[in-house]
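Researcher: Final request for today, and then I'll write up notes for the group meeting. The sequence and the SMILES for manganese (II) ion follow.
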Amino acid sequence: MSDICPDADLAAAAEIIQASDAVTIISHIDADGITSESILSQAISRLEISVKTTFIRQLDPLTLHQIPQDDSLKIFSDLGSGQQILIEELGFESDQVVIVDHHVSQPSERDYLEVNSLKYGEHKTSAAGIAYLIAKELDNTNTDLAKLGIVGNVGDMMDREDLCLTGLARTILQDAVDHGNVEVWERDLNIYGISTRPLPNALAYTDDIDIPGISNDISGAQRFLEHLGISPVQGRLWPVWQDLSFEEKQHVTSALVEHVIAHDRSTDRMFIDHYLFLDERRDYGPLLNASEYATLLNSCGRWSKPGLGSAICRGDRGASYQEADIMLRNHRSKIREVLEYITDKGVLEYSHMLFIHVGALFPDTIVGIGAGMALSRLNPKKPILIMCEDSMDETVTKVSMRTKPDVIKSGVDLQAALSMASERYGGSGGGHKIAAGAFIPKSVEREFVEDVNRILAEQFGESESNS
Ligand SMILES: [Mn+2]
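Model: Predicted protein-manganese (II) ion complex:
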């Protein structure tokens, strides 16, 4: 833990906001960006300060024109830290800008106020966490917003490595629990979709655990459950995990542990903390837990409707929720199409990664997710690189990479690999160790793939020589 704490920065951010007549929030379009925006805009409008929002895909020379050149205070959230030179080029003075972020910082000449979790040694707290701390600094009754802080952190996978939220994000979780709208299921079964996914599907498509006879095998999962006395309700619909009684959950869990151990597989990643939302109605399924809520918001962003996600975060369960729900279903079926296409068509296997090009068949915003899901069906020991056409510009290729937590442990860092390789060819890349993306000129696709494979070979090799 760093000895620099955020208190002074939070107080400075609150002060500059309170002194403003109007605020413009410029935020990222993913779940972390949408929740950050929603936390900040609610906290600020509660002070009766007028607030407007601009969502952008990323802050770069192409999106700068979307930032209004007026007198309002500009709050950059879930972006901005790495683009301070661009912000300076726009001509904003240091008292006109607050940056709320958790990405690597690149300071400019101007001394912008940057509230960034990395500064405080908090590598597992996202922008929504920082946004919440500012909201609480503005008014300590804003603890209802801690829930959205949890959604943003989970959306940015801050809980993936430790299988629970830690550090500053954990203290924010405590605020949410104390407020009463969030409940933690500690060390519960590590599956996705506990509120909406039929249980056999959730078991068959866990990202983290390899369960012989169940992983990637829905009918195998169904047989396993039937054997334990769990069957479709009224002979038709399988229950979701959240519907099971405490005893049923324990029964399934211990049978799974036994089964996994009997097959000599690891139980290391079998348990995770789930964050349940007590203030949502049962029929709003995807909003009942943090990871499905985050998926809903991510799908809003990926289909260019971040404002819908923001309205849902502010409490709209009418028109906005209906529209987002339809979009989520479409999002899922499109991702399923990508997944099926990859598994049917097969991938090219390089020494240190898998590769597939899907051309213009699918929107560039979802191919990465589909590729990540396909990994378990292919070779999870190697990262996958998927290419597709950029929907905005046909001379540009969008690259996405995904891998598994175990592969990260052997030294692989996809963000580093893609940044390094794309810079060589005049492109740009970013992301995280486990999931990253890049844009490159279409003309260099072949060299690029070979280059990334070479970089991965080095990353794998370093860990082998260290061990
Ligand atoms: Mn983020």
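Model: The mean pLDDT is 93. DSSP finds 16 helices and 13 strands in the chain.
Researcher: Thanks, that's everything.
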